[in-house]
Amino acid sequence: MKEFKVRVDQHHAGDEKLPSPDIFGKALYTLYIGQNDFTSNLNVIGTEVGKQYVLQVISQIASTIKELYGLGGRAFLVLNLAPVGCYPSLLAGQSRNSSDLDGFGCLVFYNKAVVDYNEMLKEALTQTRVALPNASLIYVDTHAVLLDLFQHPKSHGLKYGTRACCGYGGGAYNFDPKLYCGNTKLIDGKNVTASACNDPNYYVSWDGIHTTEAANRLITQAILNGSYFDPPFPLHELCDLNPVG
């Protein structure tokens, strides 16, 4: 089974470069959208405007699946949204008191909003599944995997959950919104660079926004073993899977 990643945005699937019709039914489509849309609209998250926006994003995902189904696609993996309240970029940029953080140091409000989004996504997929009886439409709970990495990094061979490897400023998060990973800037009269740590394999967060290769490897292994699929899907039987190095 071949895999095709489909970009879901304001364009229709027909506007993208698509595989030839004879292999549509043999392909596996993975869809992931929401993180940038979500974090760029944090100012309205929790309001009625925010809810309507999130519903629009989810509706776009469902519409794209239906469009691909109409073209012959039958197997879809839909990844949910990550726990952005644990991201160093958000933690470092928020004025807060202790009640805003959970026991693992993550922002309660944002992670609750993510859970709400994921529940709406799961319900939308349930409804879409009824409309597409011949499709394998799988909800992939990568949120659970990544949340566990942030909360218990040492249990997975890592050391740092909510601290960025590549950043500037040190402290609990090593993230400064004025200086992103790899950039050099004049701050307080000195040229400083947001550089990478010496041991990225011990970090969950690479640059405060994205995950490290070490974390991505663990997330990928969790996806491939199928334990985070709903409903179950025999990925190992249908695809030629290689070990994740």
From TrEMBL:
Domain of life, per the record?
Answer: Eukaryota
Q: Return the InterPro entries for the record.
A: GDSL, SGNH_hydro_sf
Please state the span of the N-terminal signal peptide per the UniProt entry.
none
An MF annotation (GO) of this entry:
hydrolase activity, acting on ester bonds
Keywords noted in UniProt:
Glycoprotein
**What does the sequence similarity comment in the record state about its family?**
Belongs to the 'GDSL' lipolytic enzyme family.
PANTHER family named in the record: OS06G0160200 PROTEIN, ZINC FINGER FYVE DOMAIN CONTAINING PROTEIN
| Name this protein carries in UniProt | GDSL esterase/lipase
Q: Which organism is it from?
A: Rubroshorea leprosula
